[in-house]
Amino acid sequence: MQLVKWNPMRDMFSLNNRTNNFFDDFFYPSRDVRPDKEWNWNPRVDIYEDEGSIVLKAELPGVEKDKIVVDVKDRVLTLKGERMSDSEVKENSYYRRERTCGSFERRFNLPDNVDPEKITADYKDGVLKVGIPKPEENKPRQISIH
Asked: Is the pTM above the cut of 0.70?
């Protein structure tokens, strides 16, 4: 038997994993229907506003530009795509595999009065930047009487 030095941090992370597994087992009792099996991955997204637009930035490392689709329908912006796996490495050759691959889909509600024709998208260095122009406010208009 090997003597292992006690590390309180290891126990803390172990408790966190056990807690996560407890909730996963409760909400997904069948191991085949766990969230990581249903959905492959979701890109991280930042949404902020600048002078004249709302900007959505999504991290999509390893995703080819032609595998990304940005749709707008009924005030919902949909971001879809797929990251392909490394085909040159055999599955049994991995020591550790943390990067996920497969398809993803995220949806975002847009404000009223957004013109979908003016939405722009740019992809550079694994980051997709979508520019959504702010809708013009409905200003009261004075009507002249003749």
From this structure: no
State phi, psi for 110 to the nearest 5 degrees: -100, 155
Q: Note the pLDDT tens digit of each residue in 65-94.
A: 999 999 999 989 999 999 887 777 787 887
Helices (H), the chain: 8-27, 35-38
Residue 129 neighbours by CB under 8 Å, 6+ apart: 55, 56, 57, 121, 122, 123
pLDDT tens-digit profile of 45-56?
A: 999 998 889 999
| Alpha-helical regions (H) of 28-52 | 35-38
Provide the pLDDT for residue 101. Answer: 82
Which residues are CB-neighbours of 123 under 8 A, at least 6 positions away? 60, 65, 68, 129
H-type alpha helices, 32-104 = 35-38
Measured CA to CA in angstroms, residue 127 lies from 44, 57, 119 at distances of 10, 7, 17
